[in-house]
Amino acid sequence: MRYLFCLLCSGAVTICSAQDLAFGRRMVDTLTSAYFQGRGYTNDGMKRAADFLAGEFRSYGLKPLSGKSFKQEFTYPANTFPGKMALTVNGQTLQPGRDFIVSPESRGVRASGRLAQTDSNQFLNRDHRLVLLVTDTLTWSAAPVEESYTAIEVRKRVLQGVPPERFVADIEQRFVKQFAAANICGMVRGTRQPDSMIVMTAHYDHLGNMGSDTYFPGANDNASGTALLLNLAHYYGSHPQPYTMVFILFAGEEIGLKGSEYFVAHPLVSLQHIRFLLNTDLAGTGDDGITVVNATEFPKEFALMQQINEQQKLLTAIRPTGKAQNSDHYHFTEKGVPAFFFYTQGGIAAYHDINDRAETLPMNEHEDLFKLVVSFNKALMSAE
Question: Which domains does the chain have, with CATH numbers?
Fold first, then answer.
């Protein structure tokens, strides 16, 4: 494979104002707002986000990838926490998200009692099948299963060195066997080789609510990647390319890559026609550059990306790593689709907690990531 060297030496690709950082910030602010409730499993958070994103695709001039709808609908099981989320330990009322989290596979519980210590950080109430884990940090997730116990993690510092001996818990939980979700899929048809495609993806879902009053905003994970993809879709909507440009926003990533798994099993385009796929997640920082998953699987394309970055002086570093099952690119790679997954490094450390907020997300490499993707795509389409 030979790339036109002139593309690497001609300076930055001319890009219109679609890559304006203000666009990205506005999208992150919007997606992390209370209206979308963390884009998760209660209060219609994920559905509201899907409706909004489909409307954005339409406003940019994209066409649905299949049929008349931007939505590819599917279902999967999800354990949810829609209501009460109360916990008292040793007479102290704890705040959900800040002081404690409920493990996502847990069943609901309404009980009180004593706790018996079983190891240095684990305390048990056998009568109510409840376990309390003392930890330094709180990191939440989502689960597609419901177990027969309740596990609660409590931040160590709120206990002030006193072992938990008594508890009162009122936690509402509901298992949804068929949670309704949708991937949002759009395209800009190619002008010369429409059967060849470059695909750009990100997941828009996050963790949603843990109780009725606490939601996880998910600014870096992954409102930032969604904002980058929307910026690219906005740009390509008014700048058609030789290849068809495809944009997919996946649901269900946080609960086990459900959206990308479903898409690959029910593809709306021929996977064999995908020239390359770029998946982005955690795109809101970048002090230390980015890491590219699958770089060692596709060394020629990775070398191209590095050359573009060095020539245009965009990111501080692009670090290669190998194959990994850590985001939505994975199912495509397993089907033979060449793909990179890139994520930013450095900056804030908030992850899967209530502190992953828009107001603290720097987004300092948003514009450079935009330029890198556009230049990389142009080089791919110019290659023989």
Answer: 5-79+177-382 (3.40.630.10), 84-171 (no CATH)
